[in-house]
Amino acid sequence: IGDFNSDDSEGGGGMGNPNIPLLFQQPSSGMKPPREESFFDFLKYVCCPSMTLRSFIFWVIIVQVLFFILSLALSPKISGEFLQPDIKTLVNLGARYDYAIMQGQVFRFLTPILLHAHFMHLASNTISQLIFGPSLEATIGTKKIMIIYLISGIGGNLFSSFIDDIISVGA
Q: What's the whole-model pTM score?
């Protein structure tokens, strides 16, 4: 049985120089080299392998993140939960507000889809969209995913208007 610290060339079967930490040694012939992909490549291949720059879901996420940054930038104060925009700012950006909808602002059935109440709301929606969106878009097509996304978002806001009259964002 060979010495644990011995070199492969000495027949011991261990790694090279025992004075160099294993992390910095070159792999021997029997070891696989470390993966050479970036963290973003890892996310793309694991979470959303079919997402491209032409993907509808990709651009929806970009727009949602930009709207969130805008809502934080326009908020006079950020309070409550972690990175929570001011409610007045969200109303000005198009949150579902039934009084305004009754005054004719029907765009408020669509704009809440792009708004988020706080950072965790944005993060959970984005992660869900990254996990399910690209594969669904690749399966049924961009046009159908756009229709489903818009109808479900508008329908969710319309339905919640019948249930309660609170100011809300999201679908």
A: 0.71
